[in-house]
Design goal:
The complex is a heterodimer of chains A (604) and B (355). Chain A is α+β, with helices and mostly antiparallel strands and 604 residues long. Chain A is built from 19 helices and 21 strands. Chain B is built from 16 helices and no strands. Classes of the chains: A alpha+beta (604), B mainly alpha (355).
Amino acid sequence: MNPHALMRRCLSAAAALMLSAGALAVTAPAAAQADDDKNTLLIATDQEVDTFNPFKRRFVITYNTSIMTYETLVRMGTDYEPVPGLATEWVESADGLEWTFTIREGAKWSDGEPLTAQDVAYTYNLMIENEDIRTWNIDFAGNLVSAVAPDDTTFVLTLAAPAPAEVLTREVFIVPEHIWSEYPDPSADDANQPPLVGSGPFQVTEYQTDEFVRLAANEGYWDGAPGFDEIVYDYYSEADAAVAALEAGEVDVVSGLNPAQMDALEKQDHVTVNDAQGRRYVSLTLNHGTVTQDGTEFGDGHPALKDPVVRNALHTAIDKQALVDTVLDGSGTPATSLIPSIFAQYHWDGGDQLVQFDIDEANRMLDEAGYERGDDGIRTMPGGGDKLSFRFYHHADNIAYATIVQFVTEWWTELGIEVTPEPIEQGTLNDLAYLGEFDIAFSGWGVGPNPTEQLGMHTCAVLPTLTDGSERSSENSYCNTEYDALHEQQKVESDPDARAELVKRQQELLYTEAPVIWLYYQNTTEAYNHDKIGGMQTQPSEGGMITGQQGYAWAYVSAQPQAAGDDGGAPMWVWIAVGAAVVVVAAAAAWFVLQRRKTADERE
Amino acid sequence: MTEGSPAADGVPIGASSAGRAAMRAPEKRISSGFGRYLAKHVGGAAVSLLLVLFSSFFIFRLIAGDPIDQLTRERPVSPEERAAMRAELGLDQPMWQQFWDYITGTLTGDLGESFQYRRPIFELIVERLPATLLLSGTGMVLAVVLGFWIGTRAGWKQGSRFDKGQVATGLLLYSAPTFWLGMIVILVFARYLGLFPVNGMRSPSTPPDFWSQAVDIGHHLVLPVLTYTAVVYAGYLMIMRSSLLDEIGSDYLTTARAKGLRDDEVRRRHAVPNALLPTVTLVFLALGGVVNGSIVTETVFSWPGLGSLFVQSIFYPDRPVLQALFVLFSASTILAVLCAEILYWFIDPRIRRSG
């Protein structure tokens, strides 16, 4: 075997490969366009699919596909108010235990079968009778007694205890009995596989793992067919790549953008950026002493943090507006308590309790409480003893948190407090936090429209029973009987205004006792191609968000394709340049090969 | 010609020419010697595999964090739901039970179920392996061919402008972080020129017939392969170049020239074949690395292969997936090295004599 011949063959193969790649590049977009008679809305995503089973899904992406594929009895409106969904009206009995829903006539499944109250009863009965589905949804399903459909348009749900808010906001996705009763195990993760049959505006028809999720419009949708023919969630594991794709017109909606990405996109003619109020808060958890249900203390938090005066002094020495301006570039709001201002009805604004940034005042509070400064300027516990020296844990992969730490450390140092910031990988940070082995740590949650689940994380009922940090339901070992009483009341209060008062009172307690300091509510930052999409309904209706909608995909159902303008692809001169380059390279290669052959012939 | 610069790969010049001189020696007792040699190396590989199998279980338990936190992120869950999830994922089992299940499962081909995808891991790997093989395989072939070709030319004319220019370019790309280079490639070729897609292996809008799919996949393949090749080809370039430099002063080349062969022929008929020998290990190591070789490239370009699966699994941590991939990645490297060792028996006589 002549190695040189082998080498030359390899080389020609490589050259051929490169040339064909070039040829592919030139021909492919044309091929793609030929089939492009469908109006497709492309949304960038980076989250894998856990399961399409609507009873077991946990991830955001499958939440989004579920609210489009299936429907609920009561829909969440554009301002988070209950509006008719599959049920046209509903009545709560006087004792709050029996709910009667009137099911919409004329609704159909995407396979053409009619949807009746029998399907609704079947779905709720899955939650009552199927052991796995019940456990998986126990906080709601545990309260259900019976679900019956006396006729095709009436559905009656009976509860063990009144829970009006849960009944109206809990998303129980109604599934078709004629399909699901055929499944060997409706609780299995792979029970329902695409193409899915549902009654919503779009159904999942195809899924390629970590490549795309395709949803097709339901042409026979009772509320009118959507504007787009299909919605595709396309995978981008790097946000910057998704931004480049939006700029190049390859994807239509991108969310979760940082300030730099927002700035870059703002300059694009075909892109609209949306910096809207969000549902997420960022907070500092103060270790005020971790305890179990039976009062066993565990963890190693600093004793000074058990004193509300110290916690409030720390709170007073944080300029939340400055954090919003610098860390978020203004894309947020200073926070007060648990429920973000986007939920105007339940948000508590601080009233006359609102803490104002004032380092002198904070110093005065600590002086009065007897935390005296030592020779090195660091305060000690009253009567001498331990220094006020706190470990400050932040997530190592979060740049915003690292910046916050710098600001906060500077302010707290002025109080005569020693702060030791430490970046920690998030898994470890969670482990330490639930073991109580920290002083101050970051936390943050996305809040849903029903405040119960967030408020519930601060009740005595969820305190751990073990000290190993494995039960992670209590946010910070907070336990206050007054708070718990308010919590039980708000859960059963049917009057929205009265409920809101109770919820606000709970937040005020959390705010003034300060087991947690809420820093800011973070905006939702998203952008879309307005040359392709128009008319998207936001939630809330005024200045709200497009991605991250709750209860119903208002934006994608209302989205209308725009008259096709420039698709943002490469301009003509680029194609000409590429064509010319390919020709030149090919000619050079041919000349090279001929030349070689000629000299080789001469040489042999 | 200079009298052979110091060998970059540490093989003394004398030793390698002595080895080649013995190549023509008659081969005796090859079967029994080979049997012993094979047994020794297969045994070694088996021990390594076993160690990997065992350590894989423990290594990924060092990653802190409760997978349930990630699986329920952004939504508080009641203690009962949390317990139900733990039971379903098998996290409530004692450690020794988990270990036993893992060992017996892996040995019988049952790799368990992924926490995040809620699907059998075997299925996930089978689904993603072709994507990885396509990307790193294409990239590896290009890098080896390009590296060897440029390396040969550069080494032959050591110190020339071509040599200096190629070595500088190669090393510059070699030292560029893959992630950064990938972003630059995306900006130039996708963002500004709009020539290539930046994510995944195919577009959702491509018709399902074979040719449309093949063209679309080829179109998506260009940028990741370009990035991957650009970063790794310099390694092959440098090895080939130094390997050739070892040969340059050899007597047999002088003899070849004395026969009246042209410079070009001396290079391709005599120098290159001998210089290729030390690179065999490298090529086999590269083959082993094809399975796990492009983690960063896959992440930048959202390529649906094993590398991006690995990265995604670390965040949970999705331990069953990490364990399975770690075993797979290690096994492919171990087996590739074993193949290289077996091949050496046939191409390098020194081993036969010492073995």
